[in-house]
Amino acid sequence: MTPISTHRFKPRHLALSGALLFLAACSGASSEEIGAVDTVFKFIGPDHKIVVDAYDDPKVSGVTCYVSRAKTGGIKGAFGLAEDKAEASIACRQTGVISFGAKPLDKQEEMFSERISLVFKKLRVIRMVDSKRNTLVYLTYSDRLIEGSPQNSVTAVPVPATTVIPVK
């Protein structure tokens, strides 16, 4: 009969596991990187770059938002400790037949957020409904725990007149 293993995690394993889970939670799980271009060469660690990510609207089928933003490289960037710049640009487009789920949309709600520093800064994408023009408006900006940035970008997706946007 073989003995049952009584292997236990050591405290350093638990700390490492916790750190990896935290970093995984900070990453944007619902975005897809479309591409990136290097902007500054770094001898150690990844280069600074501009990345373009695609975000499918989770409540509106057929709409995808493309967000470009700076991503800091170097040693801090390699370990996820760098604070990325607040600037971002957004372009949302109809990429299929636009349809809505069973629940009506809020007049304004956060579609997506992603941490762009270890703790204090987030990139946000907000969806707004312009019922009068039957249009979905998307805004991107970044905020901090203490003070946000006024830098922002906005785009709009007109919905065909035959499709009414359901709003709460």
Shape: elongated
Mean pLDDT: 76
Radius of gyration: 20 Å
Strand line-up of the largest beta sheet:
1-2-3-4
Structural class: mainly beta
Strand content: over 45%
Q: How many distinct domains?
A: 1
Give a written overview of the molecule.
The protein has 168 residues and is mainly β. It has one domain. The chain contains 2 helices and 8 strands, in the order αβββαβββββ. The strands form 2 sheets. It has a 4-stranded antiparallel sheet with strand order 1-2-3-4, with no helix packed on it. A 4-stranded antiparallel sheet has the order 5-6-7-8, with no helix packed on it. Strand 7 (135-144) and strand 8 (152-158) form a beta hairpin. The longest helix has 16 residues, at 11-26. The chain is elongated. Mean pLDDT is 76; it is low at 5-29.
Short description:
By secondary structure, this protein is mainly beta. It has helices at residues 11-26, 74-78; strands spanning 32-40, 48-56, 60-71, 88-100, 108-115, 121-130, 135-144, 152-158.
Question: Which secondary structure elements does this structure contain, and how are they paired or packed?
Answer:
Blueprint: H1 11-26, E1 32-40, E2 48-56, E3 60-71, H2 74-78, E4 88-100, E5 108-115, E6 121-130, E7 135-144, E8 152-158
Antiparallel strand pairs: 1-2, 2-3, 3-4, 5-6, 6-7, 7-8
Features:
8 strands; mainly beta; 2 helices; 168 residues; 4-stranded antiparallel sheet
